[in-house]
Amino acid sequence: MEIELKFALSPQRQRNLDKLLGKLARTVSKPVRQHQITQYFDFADEALRAAGFGLRVRQSDDGYVQTLKALTGEGGAAMERFEREWTLMRNRLDVTRLAGTPISRLMAARREAPIRQIFTTDIARVTYMLALEDDAVVEVAVDNGHVRAGEKAQAIHEIEFELKAGPVAALYRFAAAFHEARRLSISADSKAMRGYRLAAGRGFEARKAQALDLPRDATVAEGFRRIMGSGAAQFMANLPFCSTDNAEPLHQARVAVRRIRSALAWFEPYLEPVAAARFEDTLRRFGRILGEARDRDVFIDELAGEKAEDGQNGTWLDMVGPPIEAERRAAYRGVQALINSGEPTAFILALAGWAESGQWLRPEFGHLGDAKLTAIAPELLDRLASRADKRGRRLRERSLDELHSLRKTLKKLRYCTEYCEALYKRKRVRRYQERAKELLEVLGALNDTVGTDALLDTLDTKDATLTPGIGLISRASIANREVALKQLPKAWKAFAAEKPFWS
Question: Most CB within 10 Å of its CB: which of 150, 256, 281, 410?
């Protein structure tokens, strides 16, 4: 398993790197410079990529190396990825070496199918070996070059920190210190994934939350580390690609923020309160910035749907679009400013290092780190479930703000059931999640109408040309709200009747 952190680092920020590393490490080796040309192989239908692996042959000053490597991995900010290498005598793929690997069955089934080169990378690499505290050893690799597929090429300027020995927490501490001295840009985009996108001519595909397959005997410490890592990985993967051209990465980045906040709320009784509160404040602020853009994305989509249903009044509706689109682009500029600030990188490194260190537990609960997660999971789930139950009583008397609070609590509960899905019988877990999802869909539809009304209030009502369009959208919103309010009691009753799977 390879454990590494990857960041974008412009050539300007690579200057005087030797001096900086000398300040941050106990000892630094002399730089080793290499020219690496790497060919990536796959079948015509990209079956290896679909299976989650990259297959390559690299030519460098040391000779030829064939590598099978997972395209993604666990571990959050620091990816833990499967990797196997073979030294070759010549610059040619040897598929016989793949016997006994995770793709051996796939290769056997496609024995007659041609495998071909998909893209190449041409990289000038400089590596340093660092000795850090806690007997940690980290390899720093600075890469400059490009990935090429046919006539298309894309520049690469990045830095990798790979842990060779010692605790993962030491890797995060080093990366945080490096970031403070020489700002890094968050990145989870491998050369292989960039090459595949370039070859296929497709854009970035937003990354949804990955299933967290915790072992049944997972400890509290392992569970917390991997849950935090899951949210961090989703956030890292999507944030750099947030743009007005594709709304999905921003949506998934916002989901990641919510998932991390949900985990902090779940473990709250045992968390060191000062650090937890600071992380929560930062996440709330990130969520607000992303939410400004996301709310306008949703409004624009709903406006398009309204126009499709009511073509007769399409002209009035068209007039409402431009001012909201202007707000949307302004909100996305705020998102881009956040990305460029370097704060998300600092946050992820701090959160991951905190989760790895064990310092996240209150001192009086330090002994719980080695206990099984199943020992405390029911109690923690009960806390959220009882909060949802309290907020779900007397639904017909609840205000829209109170129903929004119910929705937020229920979302946290649903995310936390997903975190520990592998710890219980999956059939019961998924049935409970399905009831929660059905209720959340109704509450979400209700919340969308509140968001629509809030955005309509931001429009300059002194502009009389907008008034007819605002009226049309407002009436549709009121109608949708009435439908959701009628559906709500039945959805709540079905959820409340579902027995908690952890009982």
Answer: 256
Q: What's the token pair of residue 321?
A: 């679009």
Integer-rounded Cα radius of gyration of the chain = 25
What span, in angstroms and rounded, lies between the C-alpha atoms of 433 and 419? 12
Residue with tokens 């040897």: 94
Helix, strand, or coil here: 125? Answer: strand
Q: Which residues, including other chains, have CB under 8 Å from residue 395's CB and lie 6 or more apart? A: 403, 488, 489, 492
Residue 52 near residue 72 (C-beta atoms within 8 A) = yes
Contact 135, 26 (CB under 8 A): no
**What is the per-residue DSSP string for 37-106?**
EEEEEEETT-HHHHHTEEEEEEEETTEEEEEEEESS-BSTTSEEE-EEEEEESSSS--GGGGTTSTTHHH
pLDDT tens digits for range 69-115: 988 766 566 667 789 999 999 999 999 999 999 999 999 999 999 99
Q: Locate 232 and state its tokens.
A: 């961090």
Residue 296 burial (CB count, 10 A): 24
pTM for this predicted structure? 0.92
Tokens of 273: 């309160």
Other C-beta atoms closer than 10 Å to the C-beta of 191 total: 22
Give CA–CA dist 413/380, Å, rounded: 10
Task: Specify the CATH superfamily of domain 269-497.
Answer: CHAD domain (1.40.20.10)
pLDDT per position as a tens digit, 178-187: 999 999 987 8
> What are the residue ranges spanned by the domains of the chain?
2-203, 269-497
Spatial distance between the Cα atoms of 301 and 311, rounded to a whole number of angstroms: 15
3-state DSSP assignment of residue 161 = strand
User: Any idea what DSSP says for residue 26?
Assistant: S
Judge: domain 2-203, CATH 1.10.3300.10. Answer: no
Distance CA 189, CA 8 (A): 9
Which residues make Cβ contacts (< 8 Å) with residue 485, sequence separation at least 6?
A: 446
Q: Scanning the structure block, which residue is given the tokens 């404040």? A: 281
Say which range, 71-80, 232-241, 405-414, has the weakest mean pLDDT: 71-80
